[in-house]
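Morning run. Coffee first, then this:
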Amino acid sequence: MSAYKYLKEEVYEANMELPRKGLVLYTFGNVSGIDRQAGVVAIKPSGVPYEELRVEDIVVVDLDNQLVEGAMRPSSDTKTHTLLYRHFNTVGGICHTHSTHAVAWAQAMRPIPNLGTTHADHLVASVPVTDVMSDEAIKGDYEHETGLQILDKFKELDLSPEEVEMVLVACHGPFTWGKTPAKAVYNSAVLEELARMAYLTLTINPATPAIKQSLVDKHYFRKHGKDAYYGQGC
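And here it is:
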C-alpha cells in the first residue's frame, strides 16, 4: 500500500472535479496537493486523459521535483507547482486549467477587473496577469520560470497569496490555489465565472468602471476575516 494513499486519493478526487465542472478538455489541466510534514507533492501524471485516470496513477515528488512514488511522469507543470509551494507557505493545493474565459483574458494579457460584488465576494483586487515571459526564460527552465513570473507579479503588486488565490499567466492560462486541492479547484471554478462575467459586462458596456471600494469592503469582509458573518460559522 502506498505511504501517500490519503494524499493521492485527495488529489485524484480534485482532478476529477475539473471535467465535472467543465474546466478542462481531454488532458488540459492538473491539480496537486502537498503534505508539508512529509515534504511531498502529489500531482496528476502528464498527458493522461481524465476518463483513464486512476488513483494509483497519481505521481508523488519531493519539493526538488525528484520522483518519490509512481510509474508515470508527473505533470509537465510540476516545477511551477513546487516553486509556488516553496514560496506560498500556507498553500495546500494548486490547480491549473485552460478554461475558456480565463484563458481569453490571459491571452489578451489583461487583468480581470473587479466590476461587481460576485468578484468582491472572493477577492479585493483585480485578478492579476503576469508579464509576458522573455525569450531567454522560455528557452531556459520554462516551467520553473512560469512560477517565477507568478512570484514576481505578486511581489510587484504587493499581493498576499492568502487573499488573492488566483493568477493569469500571460499568453498561457490560470493557476489557482487554496488550503486544500479541493479549494484550489473551487477557486478555478470561481475564476472562470469571474472571467466570463467580466467579459460579458465589458461587451455590454466597455466603459464599465471598477466597483466602488465601499462595496468591495462590505462583500469581501462579510465572508472573510474575524468579523465575517456569511454562512453558518464553524
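The chain has one domain: 5-221. Good start to the day.
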